[in-house]
Amino acid sequence: MTALDPLQPRTLFFRPQERNIFFHLLTACNLACRHCYINPAQHGTAMLPLATVTKWLRLFFDPAKQSNLILLGGEPTLHPDLAAIIKFARELGYQSVTVDTNGFLHHDLLDRITPDEAVISFSLDGPTAAVNDPLRGEGVFATCTANLKRAVAKGFDVSLIYTVSRWNIDHLHQMPALLAELGCKRFFIQVIGLRGKSAKENELNLQVTPEEWLAVVPGVAREAAARGIHVIYPKVYLEPDEPFQCAGNVAENYFIFPNGRVYLCPLCEDFPLHTFQIEENCLVEQPGITEKKLFSLDIAEGCVMNKLLQPGNIDYDEAGHPRHRISCCLLKQEIRP
After folding, report:
1. Across-strand partners of 279?
2. What residue ranges define each of the domains in the chain, with the CATH number in brackets?
3. Tens digit of pLDDT for each residue in 41-65?
4. How many CB atoms lie within 10 A of CB 159?
5. Which of 7, 37, 290, 336 could bridge across to 196 with cysteines, CB 3.0–4.6 Å?
6. Cα 6 to the center of its chain, rounded Å
7. What are the counts of helices (DSSP H) followed by strands (DSSP E) for the chain?
8. What DSSP character marks residue 62?
9. What does each C-alpha distance from 179 to 122, 135, 159, 263, 334 come to in angstroms?
């Protein structure tokens, strides 16, 4: 590979002029995915009413920055006011609005919004029902792919998210052909995090090794890009000479939950380490030990939160040095077709 290779991945460094709001409107879902990261004990069980959502959207909107909104759940399309929320966010000035969905598209969402109002991002964890449905539920593959094709036909900008784990990494290579067949032009490859259900099932060794990730994911990303698909995937491992950057120090990413917790790092979401709490529609910084206070630690392993919360991800040589440095979980690479 050379710098002139059009399929060479490019690192998407953090941009201080950009603000990303990951807003969990509710934690309920119509599915029971085996690797769901939602933890009701930490995230709450409420569905936020429209009046609260609009107040919180105002709280996090910054007209001086490119403010991007990602609406999440649970399953966000279960919210009866989702269409109104999307329209309000765009009228307020959010640069982009994305809905992350399991593909069931409740409340006739595609008929209640227009393609210029939101991007629809579908989650699928296998190229066939035989791979996907044991992870996400019976019949999910058929419903998700049918609704993705319907969204494409209606003119929506769609993307597909595939969470790589021990369960499905051997099938990732089949995804570029499926995306081309579906007419999906953007592919997000995610690494499974040990949060929620995944943390409880960790004895199954769900995470792939650095060697497996590096042997499979970049190659699949290049193949997808060769088919005209824009691919984004986590950096995960830093090169020996690459500096470590923590998004919590140099970027603006807010992960909001229905109980008012606001995190800066998604790795922390299983723990009461949130930096902020929304109280009476104000953002209040929390006392004591929080994720923000830990971001300043400089360690040889790279990401301090990964070292603290997922130490099994890091392997050491005989001298005690980490074989791979872990990048910030929010650092991405992309290959554009």
Report:
1. 282
2. 10-242+328-335 (3.20.20.70)
3. 999 999 999 999 999 999 999 999 9
4. 21
5. 37
6. 26
7. 12, 15
8. -
9. 11, 19, 9, 32, 16
